[in-house]
Amino acid sequence: MEISAGHAADARGYSFVKDVTAMHMDFETVSALQYRNRSLKKQVEAFKSGEKYIQMEAARKELLRFHQREIKRPEYELSKAHSETVTVRRYWGEVMDDLEKEYQEQIRRLEAEIARLKKQNLEPGRQRDEAKDKLKERTGQYYAAAAELEEERGKNRKLTAQVNRDFENSSLPSSLKGAGRKKIANSREKTGRRPGGQPGHRGHPRKKHVPDISYAIPSPAEYAENPDYYETGKVIRKQKVCIRLDVEVIEYTAKEYRNRKTGARVHAPFPEGYINEVNYDGTVKAFAFLLGNECCVSHGKIRRLLSELTDGRVRISDGMINGLCAEFRAKTEHEKKEILKKLLSSPVMNVDFTNASFNGKGRQVLVLASPSENAALYIGREKKGHAGVIGTPLQDYAGTLVHDHDKTFYSYGTGHQECTQHDIRYMTGSVQNEPELTWNRQMLTLFREMLHYRNGLLEGAQADPEAVSGFEAAYDRLLEKAEAEYADEPPDDYYREGYNLFLRLSVVYLLRSQGENVYQKIAETYRRKRPPMEKAKEEAGIVM
After folding, report:
1. Contact between 388 and 382 (Cβ < 8 Å)
2. Taking CA 359 as the corner, what is the angle to CA 353 and CA 361, rounded to the nearest 5 degrees?
């Protein structure tokens, strides 16, 4: 997960509240704004004349050419590395051939020498011993060279695994992929079957709705008045679903009065939420909030979209959009406490550290989630590891943790389950780096079959006990096969992730949360009253 510098803290519900003191504008500030206004007018004129667009198009083309060059560079480096690997392999093959030839030639010379000595019967004992010593020395040299060659082959395997290491076959996050690493690709393997639903697959028709408007189509006379036709009693229904965004402006008015003695102006109090001359209710705020945080839409596009959808009637500012997260945070303290209770009482909790950006600096976000409780909490931290856990609910959690095998998490909770997706990544890496084994490929296929079966269950349906027993039996057989294969082919010191995965594998739990209407919940949240302190800050003009 990546969060931009402008939205990072707000996108995950963590941010730092800053108090900004309102400042009076002096003459220098006004002058600066005037110069800024003139500069902006020049920029607008540049856009109107088309000169700015020509410059932007030229810059875009130059940037495109730069990225094309950057894309070709790792391809050349990879080709060069492959060529060097082939050269090294050929070199060691030649070394082994030379050693073998030298060894055979030495044997031949020694045998000839022994035969000659036997024939001449000159110091046969001494010369025989010398020959044996030399043969032993040469044999030792041969085996030393063979061991060195095997060592180099192991190093080559390790380097190959490191070059090919990415987020698809290891715990490396996709956000850290750099130059030379593969793009995010579909991890599904080709089956050769045609796209779409397979034979026997239950279809998912579109859900019918209760109509708001209903029209009955008059029957044609050729059917209604023809005695050859009669009504079957069945009515054919076809629906069209439309979405219309309508703007409703609710205005309250109150007469103003002035005190003749004090000059004070007063009026009847307005309802809750009517603070400024123009206010926006929870529907507008929820729409903008979801676009910015759920859909990762920029502020400019949010403003433009709302304006276009409402024909220019709704024009919100960047300041309002910036304040939505702070307002939402203040009005959801109760939900946060409830989420905290659910997480701490949940028997299983997913946990992970993910990278984020805050004001251009790298930060960490601790993600705590319980699919069974449909609860999740995002906590911004300076660092990962134990420093990122201290002071969070994870520190006091007493259940089973599901994670990516980060060693930090093994110090918390009472049980541990490795993330299924990470298991699949490690199995993919084992298939790539241990092609001589069979358990890894078969286990990868089994995992995908189990996931496909679980995801194919209808909502609320229970898994067939017989099918589950079959999966468990196949799982145990593959673990036995892995043990036997590693006994025959022990893992070397250069690649042990496949073997370590075999040691870690345990019972797999597949959880799936129930979905809710997020938009309605957020819109309802924005209709709530602010806490007294937050409301006072808003009325005082303090931006959060």
Report:
1. yes
2. 50
Q: Are 445 and 431 in contact (CB under 8 A)?
A: no
Which residue in the block uniquely carries the two structure tokens 């540049």? 46
What CA–CA distance (Å, rounded) separates 293 from 13?
A: 9
Both structure tokens of 298:
């920029």
- Residue from 129, 40, 157 nearest 493 by CA: 157
Q: Enumerate the H helices of 294-351 as residue ranges.
A: 299-309, 318-331, 333-345
**Do residues 483 and 502 touch, judged by C-beta distance below 8 A?**
yes
Q: Which amino acid is at 266?
A: V
DSSP string, 524-536: HHHTSPPPHHHHH
What tokens does 274 get?
């009517």
Instruction: Report the C-alpha gap between 439 and 336 in whole angstroms.
Output: 45
**HEC profile of 395-427:** HHCCCEEEECCCHHHHHCCCEEEECHHHHHHHH
Model pTM score: 0.47
- Return the CA Rg of the chain: 36
- Contact (CB, 8 A) for 179 and 70: yes
The DSSP output letter for 394 is G
Instruction: Give the H/E segment covering residue 257.
Output: strand 256-258
Structure tokens at 193: 């079957």
pLDDT tens per residue across all 544 residues of the chain = 444 444 444 544 444 434 444 444 467 777 778 788 888 888 788 777 778 788 888 888 888 888 888 887 777 778 887 888 888 788 788 888 888 888 888 888 888 888 777 776 656 666 677 777 778 777 777 767 766 676 666 666 656 655 655 555 455 555 555 444 444 334 555 666 666 666 666 666 677 888 889 989 999 999 889 999 999 999 999 888 888 878 889 999 999 999 999 999 999 999 988 888 998 888 888 899 899 888 888 889 999 998 998 888 989 898 888 888 888 888 888 888 888 888 888 999 999 988 877 777 888 889 999 888 888 888 888 888 899 899 888 888 988 898 887 888 888 988 888 778 888 888 888 888 888 888 889 988 998 898 888 888 887 788 888 888 898 889 888 888 888 888 888 877 777 777 787 777 743 322 223 344 555 655 666 566 655 544 444 443 333 3
Output the CA torsion sign for 389, 392, 396, 398.
negative
Domain ranges of the chain: 53-163, 278-331+517-533, 348-504
Listed in sequence order, the residues at least 6 apart from 199 whose beta carbon sits closer than 8 Å to its beta carbon are: none
Q: What is the DSSP letter of 198?
A: P
End-to-end distance of the chain based on CA atoms, in angstroms?
Answer: 25
Taking the CA of residue 311 as centre, how many other CA atoms within 13 Å lie in the half-sphere pointing to its CB? 5
- Which of the 8 DSSP states describes residue 232? -
Cβ–Cβ under 8 Å, residues 14 and 356: no
Running DSSP on this structure, what letter comes out for residue 176? Answer: G
Cα within 13 Å of Cα(499), Cβ side: 14
